[in-house]
Amino acid sequence: SLIKRIYIDQFGILMPGLPKEDAEKKIRDIYELIQDFEYNAFKKPMHLTASLGSVDFPLSANNAVEAVNKAYMALNIARNSSDTFYYDFRDAEKQQLNSKNQTMLMHYIHDAVEQNKICFAYQPVVEAKTGKMKWYECLLRITGDDGSVSSPGAIIPVAEKMGFIDTIDQLVLERVIEDLLNNPDITLSFNASSLTTDNPKWLKQCNQLLHDSSLASRIIVEITETAAQRDLRETAYFVASLQALGCQVALDDFGAGYTSFRQLKTLSIDMIKIDGTFIREIANYPDNHLFVKTLLDFTSCYSLKTVAESVEDGESAKILMDMNVDYMQGYYFGAPEVKPEWYKGKVVGMKKA
Hints:
By secondary structure, the chain is an alpha/beta fold. The chain contains 13 helices and 13 strands. Helix 5 (165-182) runs parallel beside helix 6.
């Protein structure tokens, strides 16, 4: 191997004829040596860290200059990474493409907000015992220039990562309240981002807009298990604050993460929504059946209401009713609709028929 200083704190290392797997092991050895470095002139221990980037030559570069430039690109991405100290150029190239795609998605959702193309699709939630509609979940949708409606899909995680989710959650809250004012007989639920649970500005907005308890009593805020895992105390405060206003709070997609029964008790939520992966095949998989039964037995002891998501057929609905689930939601009872029969108000971004 050949080592040469390139700049004050940058070194280049050539490892000719070394297979990629062996080269990566050497890179990790180098990193460990840097971390374990000791210098007797200092009385206190030093903590050193480093970022490393590599390129496979001539596989990924045609000449020495191109190889150095691509190694620099990998180094810069490694330096800005929060989860790794090392990138190979080919992995860095994929990371750069992913970042570009995320930026494009961010522009897309930003334009949708600016151009008033955000709307809801409403899916009914029914009471298991009576089959009566109890409330509707507001599912975020984006309208196209041609009037078509699409789900945000992977856009929300990108918005969370890039700090735009505050704007979206604020808009969602305002739209929900507008819908409730225009439709006084309807109760609505909606999802709050896991980042919103520790956002005091959003809670302040709730206090300003929900001064009428009769309005708040028709709102169910859904939080994810991710929110519970972030900071249990912050999430518990968030839940209690909403309940003090008169809202109900549901824990969404329960079973998909790692929320314990102890955490459920600490959060003092009003209901849980059982993740659809356990519901869709409940008639065919005994493990799903056992999990849902155990969960329902537990929740009944703590007076928690339960919602079964993704109920797609009558057989599953019958099983869930026999298990004494409180509410059910899914295409068996109704698909999400942008303009259901009960709706009174403007559907933003939609072209007139």
